[in-house]
Amino acid sequence: MRCKSVLAMARLLLLIWLLLSCGCVWPGSAQPVSYGSTPSPELAHTYIPLTKDALPATVVIGDTQFPQSPDPLFANTSADSSLQAALWASPIYYDQFFHPHADQLTEVPLPENGDVRDGGLTVIMHLRHDLRWSDRQPLLARDFLYWWQLNQNPDTGAITVNGYDQIARIEIPDDYTVILHMKRPFGPYLLYLPYAAPLHAWNKFQPIDLQNRREVFSAPQVTDGPYMLEALQSNQQRYVLQPNLAYHSTSLHGPFLHQLVYQGYSDVEALVQAVRLGKVQVAQGYLEDDLPRFEPLPGKMQTLTISSSAYEHLDFNNQRPYFQDVRVRQAIQLGIDTCGLLKSILKQSDCRRQLGEIEPLPSPVFDAHIKPVAYDPVQARHLLAEVGWSQGKNGVLQRQGHTFPRLRLVTTDESPLRLRVAAVIQHDLEKLGFTVQVVSYPLDQFFGGFTRGGI
Predict the structure, then answer these.
(1) Can you tell me the distance from the alpha carbon of 373 to that of 379, in angstroms, rounded to the nearest whole number?
(2) Neighbour tally for 169: CB within 10 Å
(3) Reported pTM
């Protein structure tokens, strides 16, 4: 069992230098800085050609994590994902309101436009005809098929396989059409449209070798996003990116920054000092509790707080035999006083932040019928009794002379708040008779891939 955040942070807080050293002001400039911005409706189908000096500005993104791999096959941390978004395009992307937009596709595949057929068993991806890799080679339907084949090959060691495994096969009738044949109707299909991988550049490697190729895993040389790699300075924890002049998109347009730098720092204090010295224009990788450490901000710096779709959750290791009975998992859920936790640890006045699903409003797929599970230790004990577990004289769960195995609650060690939450969960479950050990690890080790010693 483990506890983590989707973005490994409770908030993403951006510290923006409003007046860049190059004299480009944002917001309010005639050509505002644009990094994956969505154009106004009247510009939605107007492509603005990139030139390398379109916006002679450098922005440094500082983070308490340093990416291990920005490759979509292997990206596993929030730092990986941030860098991946700059280096790799995707068929579609979601904005901050959970609305999908086309990136490499001409339109979002939906039942309404005929791209989802047969009751959800067929999904059609229509590619733009001007897609190019950063080496100017054409990006075609076979590259999407190749990525999915790599993802599903166990030798590759891809991080996220579930979801993509709902695709039974992929058909490519021409260079610009990708047809997904699903095993069954799959609600979140838009989240699992395959990426593209550069077949022309990677086909000389075996799938099992990809994680060991620097030009694929940590310093990808052929990519398809709005930026491309200029340099990876590992000893300085630094990625330097430049615009990918071959990038085309249905929704994302320039101008782009002359240079984008991703800089890792050892801890929050080092990041704070970099911000105060003006070395960082955008800072991320810290929590709400850390924000006062940045005050007072220097010069023309200010804080912009934005909402994000982060949430905390527990994941069961279902390879453990005792978790394979759904009643045990339900008992654990019923036995954790989430509402009380919100009030006591997060100091919330009510329990509105207790979610029953991961698509809250304003998501278009919000389901009002899904309700949060109420705290009910009595029902939890009843479910455990159905499976044969009951508390012995020492208060620990017993069944036919055997003690329920100790639960390891694993989380990250960078957040005192998250550790306090883990302690409350430990207390609640021990009242039911479980024995719980809380173990914490550094972020990079916790989120690291299995083949690289990750937890």
Answers:
(1) 12
(2) 11
(3) 0.72
